[in-house]
Amino acid sequence: MTSFYSEEELKQLGLKQYGDDVRISRKCSIYGAENICLGNHVRIDDFCLLSGNIIIQNYVHISAYTSMFAGSSRIQIGDYTAISSRISIYAESDDYSGESMVNPLVPEQYRHVVSEDVSIGKHVIIGSGSTVLPGVNVGEGASVGAMSLINHDIAPWTVNVGVPCRVIRERSRKLLEYESEWRERN
Predict the structure, then answer these.
(1) How far apart are the C-alpha atoms of 155 and 116, rounded to whole Å?
(2) Which of 5, 21, 84, 169 could form a disulfide with 9 if both were Cys (CB 3.0 to 4.6 A apart)?
(3) Between β-strands 125-126 and 143-144, what pairing exists: parallel, antiparallel or unpaired?
(4) What pTM did the predictor assign?
């Protein structure tokens, strides 16, 4: 027995959709499986938490201890993307301004929940310990360093770091040549 769900066990999870070569750790927690779509060649490691409307495309790796909270919004992750360990992605969050109360145990009329889709483009890498907040779009090919706070859109093909995240340089597009070569061979 491997640490990943078998094909039969994947069917029993009740995912909305999943492709070929999907490997989900048996130690992963999934809430709202009927709203989760996974493409081909997706790997989700130990102690990850997926909750809500989540779309993960092809050749995506989600490392250990990563959490995705979509709530009533959506989190979408593009092809060939790597989400490092201990990443938190929020499409929904309490309002921290003090203008309302917080936490799910408080009646809704006293709360203000910020709920906006999160989009992470193709060929993105997000470094360990980073946090992505509601409404953020991480552009194609962007790279984000470890321990970064992503609270605004990230431009395509840039390298970003910090709290809050900021651009430090352009990112090479050489990997597109490798993608093209690999596609030609397959």
Answers:
(1) 18
(2) 5
(3) parallel
(4) 0.95
